[in-house]
Structure to design on (457 residues):
C-alpha cells in the first residue's frame, strides 16, 4: 500500500501518514464509480438535494474542527479557513436553490403536433483534480453541482490538502451520498495521471498552468470534456481620482490575503503618477499591520507558504526585480524556520521586464508600477498570457466600465478585488484556463444537453 506523508508547512512537522492510491486502486475506484452512477442519476433531484443539505449541516456542525485541519495541512490562517468554510455554505445554498431551474427539462417549441425539448442529462463519471489553496471552495465548485446533477465523482484533492479531501468524503457519505458515487483518491501527480487514464466523461481541473497544459495534451485525443481553472497575474489600476486610502487598503488585502496564495490574488498594481507616492505610502502602512505568525492564532494574517518549492520562485522573482532596478519597499526575504515563511514583500519602480510583473508569484509579493493614464494602464494590464481577473479603482463608473471592457479577463472589478461570487461565472482568458464553474452555467456544465424532437403520431 502506498502512503502519503502530510507535513504542517508552518512547523515542518509530520502530522499524518495517509493510505494512498496506486494505479490499480485508481482503476478499481473508477470501475466502482462507473457501476454506481446510473442508480445515482435515477435518484430524484429532491433526494440528491437532501443529501447535499445534510452535507451542509455536517460542515456547520464541525466547522471549527474542519478549519483547524485545513490550517494544519496548508498553513492558512485559522480565521481564513473559517471564512472559506462559511463562504462555502453560501455557495451550497446557491447550488441548491438554482439546480432545479438550471437543469429542468425545457420545452423550446410546441406547435402543430411537434414538440422540441432540451433535457439536461448527467455527464456520467466526472474526475476532479484539485488544488490546495482553497480546497473546500475549488473542490465544492465541482463536486457539489456534479453530484446534484446526477454524476459520480472521482475526487483527487491536492496532496497538500488531502486531509480536508478525506473530510469532504466522510461528510458526503454520512449525508447519504453513496460510497461509490463520491470516491476520494489520495496521492500526488502520479495518482492524478492514473485517474486521467480511466474511462471518464469529464475532467475538471484546478491548478497550475503547467499541469493543466499536460492534462490537456494527454486528454485531447480522447475527446473527454475538459475544464481547466488555472493561474493568473491579475492586475488592478488605481486612477488619479481614486480614494487613495480605500484603494490601498483593499489592494494590500487583495495581494496578501491567504498569504498571496489565491488564484485571483492581486498580482500587479498600476497607479496613476499623480497619486503614486501617496498610494505607496498608504499601501505600506496597511502591509505593516499584517501580522505574520502561527496560523492557528486568531490574529495571524500572514501564514505559511504551503509548498516549500514556492519559496524558490519568490526568491528568484525578488532577485530578478532587484537586479533590474526595482525599489524594495518592504520584506524581500524568507522568514526564519522551521516551516515555510516569506516576508510580505513590496516593490516599487517595477516594469514588465521583471518576472514579478509577468509570472504568477503565488506568495506575499507585489509590484507597484507608475503609469501616465488610462491608455498605458490598459496596455500593461493586457500585456500578459493570463486573464483571470482585473480591476480599477475610481469613483467614475462610466470610466471604469469603459476601461475594463478593454481588458481581457474573465472577471472584472470596480472598486473591489479578490472576490468570487457563486452567482457569477468563474472563468479565465488565455492561459488562465478553459471552461467555467459557478453561476447557473457552472451547474449546467456538469450536464449534457440532450435534444428531443417529439412528433405526435
Ligand atoms: P498543481 O498544478 O501543482 O496541482 C494541482 C493538482 O494537479 C494536484 O492535485 C496535483 O496532485 C495534480 N497533478 C500534478 N501533476 C499532475 C499530472 N501530471 N497529472 C494529473 N494531475 C497532476 O497546482 P497547485 O499548486 O495545487 O495549485 C496552485 C495553482 O492553482 C495556482 O497556479 C493557482 O492560481 C491555481 N488555482 C486556480 C484557481 C482558479 O479558479 N482558476 C483556483 C485555485 C488555484
Amino acid at each position: 500500500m502506498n502512503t502519503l506523508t502530510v507535513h504542517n508547512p508552518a512547523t515542518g512537522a509530520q502530522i499524518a501518514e495517509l493510505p494512498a492510491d496506486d494505479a490499480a486502486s485508481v482503476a478499481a475506484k473508477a470501475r466502482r464509480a462507473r457501476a454506481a452512477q446510473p442508480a445515482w442519476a435515477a435518484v430524484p433531484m429532491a433526494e440528491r438535494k437532501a443529501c447535499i443539505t445534510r452535507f451542509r449541516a455536517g460542515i456547520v456542525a464541525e466547522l471549527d474542527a474542519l478549519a483547524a485541519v485545513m490550517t494544519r495541512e496548508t498553513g492558512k490562517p485559522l480565521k481564513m479557513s473559517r471564512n472559506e468554510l462559511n463562504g462555502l455554505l453560501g455557495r451550497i445554498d446557491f447550488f441548491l436553490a438554482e439546480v432545479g431551474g438550471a437543469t429542468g427539462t425545457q420545452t423550446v417549441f410546441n406547435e402543430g403536433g411537434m414538440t422540441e425539448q432540451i433535457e439536461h442529462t448527467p455527464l456520467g463519471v466526472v474526475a476532479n483534480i484539485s488544488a490546495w489553496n482553497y480546497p473546500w471552495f475549488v473542490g465544492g465548485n465541482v463536486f457539489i453541482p456534479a453530484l446534484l446533477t446526477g454524476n459520480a465523482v472521482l475526487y483527487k484533492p491536492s496532496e497538500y490538502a488531502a486531509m480536508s479531501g478525506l473530510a469532504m468524503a466522510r461528510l458526503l457519505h454520512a449525508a447519504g451520498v453513496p460510497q461509490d458515487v463520491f470516491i476520494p483518491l489520495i496521492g500526488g501527480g502520479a495518482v492524478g495521471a492514473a485517474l486521467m487514464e480511466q474511462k471518464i466523461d469529464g475532467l475538471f481541473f484546478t491548478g497550475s498552468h503547467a499541469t493543466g497544459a499536460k492534462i490537456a495534451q494527454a486528454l485531447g485525443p480522447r475527446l473527454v470534456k475538459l475544464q481547466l481553472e488555472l493561474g493568473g497575474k491579475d492586475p488592478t489600476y488605481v486612477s488619479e481620482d481614486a480614494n487613495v486610502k480605500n484603494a490601498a487598503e483593499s489592494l494590500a488585502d487583495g495581494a496578501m490575503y491567504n498569504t498571496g496564495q489565491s488564484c485571483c490574488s492581486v498580482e500587479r498594481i498600476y497607479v496613476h503618477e499623480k497619486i503614486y507616492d501617496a498610494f505607496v505610502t498608504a499601501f505600506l502602512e496597511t502591509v505593516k499591520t499584517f501580522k505574520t505568525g502561527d496560523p492557528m492564532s486568531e490574529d495571524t494574517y500572514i501564514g505559511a507558504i504551503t509548498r516549500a518549492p514556492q519559496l524558490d520562485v519568490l526568491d528568484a522573482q525578488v532577485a530578478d526585480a532587484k537586479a533590474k532596478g526595482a525599489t524594495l519597499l518592504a520584506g524581500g526575504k524568507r522568514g526564519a524556520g522551521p516551516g515555510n515563511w516569506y516576508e510580505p514583500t513590496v516593490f516599487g519602480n517595477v516594469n514588465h521586464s521583471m518576472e514579478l510583473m509577468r509570472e504568477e508569484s503565488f506568495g506575499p509579493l507585489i509590484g507597484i508600477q507608475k503609469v501616465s493614464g488610462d491608455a498605458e494602464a490598459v496596455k500593461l494590464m493586457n500585456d500578459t498570457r493570463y486573464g483571470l481577473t482585473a480591476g480599477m479603482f475610481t469613483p467614475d463608473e462610466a470610466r471604469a466600465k469603459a476601461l475594463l471592457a478593454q481588458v481581457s479577463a474573465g472577471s472584472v472589478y470596480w472598486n473591489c478585488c479578490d472576490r468570487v461570487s457563486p452567482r457569477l461565472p468563474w472563468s479565465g482568458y488565455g492561459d488562465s484556463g478553459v471552461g467555467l464553474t459557478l453561476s447557473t452555467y457552472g451547474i449546467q456544465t456538469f450536464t449534457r444537453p440532450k435534444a428531443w424532437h417529439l412528433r405526435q403520431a
